[in-house]
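Usage

Read records sequentially. Each one opens with the input sequence:
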Amino acid sequence: MKKIVKGLLVTVLATTLLAGCGGKENNTGNTEGAAAGGEAKSVTLKMFIAQPRLKEHYDKYIADFVAKEKADKNIDVTVQLEMPTADNAAQILKTRLASNDAPDIFALHAINEIPSYYKAGYLEDLSGQPFVGKLLDSVKPSVTTTDGKVVAVPLETLSWGYLYNKKIFADLGLTPPTTLTEMKAVIEKLKSSNVTPFVLSYKEAWIPQLVLPLAAGALINTENADFIDRMNKDEGSFTEMKSMFDIFDLINANGTEKATEVGGDDGAAAFAAGKGAMWLQGPWYAETILKSNPELDFGVAPLPINDNPEATLINLSASTSLAVSKSSKNKEVALDFINYVLDDTASNDFFQALKFNPIATVHTYESYPWVNDATEYVKNGKSYQDPAIPQSVKDEVGKGLQAYYAGQISQDDVLKALDKAWKSFNKVNK
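and closes with the structure output:
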């Protein structure tokens, strides 16, 4: 698709960043001879990153890279940064890749998308790049293929469950519940104190789907260990995960109104303003929350899904990662940027501004309080690795739970749709 068709509900933010002026544009990636004293080469680098709420931070970092590339290699780089919303990004990217219109650099989910994108031949092998040696041992496997190739630089590593307002909890003498029954008691205490228990924000389908990896991860690690393997063989069913509706229904019955009209940014503002004590969301929204209320003291806790406290666990994951298209004609510059993401000095401020966790040996900034909260659970063995659920299935559960919340379909309808989506995934990825 050479152009994004008008009418797509997607926010596209194009950023053109220029450093200096130079000779003719050259998109072949051939930058040999671009010595500091010679004629500058010109390269247009296309990036695709579905995090529009963080645009200002990416703009600044890209501008610094452009200046560095000009100073170090005498290359004039123009960066076209496209930042669709998360709900639309996956489909847009797949269409672009399939139609030979791939961005030079694009973001993908490390756990959910690397396996299928690598199998399809879309990802450049980055194993020999300098950044690889900087990755923490705990992070490197998330961007490594089954045959041992590193194919992306990670940005976000996550320790998550749900967010809660520490001041509200402390004022009412509450602690994060470890079972569904305890969660019900917390909810009643909040309501009796005229505090809405949950902020609801389901306008974007990816938000309600968060309950699926939390419920699946908890059940897989306590009573259904082979669920993913059996689903990949068309031998399992999401009816085995039906108990996820217990916590989802509880949240929905005790949350803010008009959830399908509230997106992530509005949900962050509502949570920051204390309009709900808890939010089914991860710490990746920390930067947005604190922009609304820099003084907010919030924490991360595992979400109870049943009355087995052993199933109340933190989800460990690596999500947003940057890959280089195998078909890129600007690989030299693309690889320069990929390595700049973990620059020995510049990346510290970049990752800290984004409120991302340290992921490399060159990161020396202190972890954030909410990260420390989650880390305590991890240290005590109360965590699991994010289950490898296909992205197409997660997309389906998001839409299904939106419709379920609106009363348009039943629990069984949602589960049948998920079974169908996974079987369709299996057919394409055999």
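Summary fields computed downstream for this record:
- Residues 16-156+319-342 form a domain with the D-Maltodextrin-Binding Protein; domain 2 fold (CATH 3.40.190.10).
- The radius of gyration is 22 Å.
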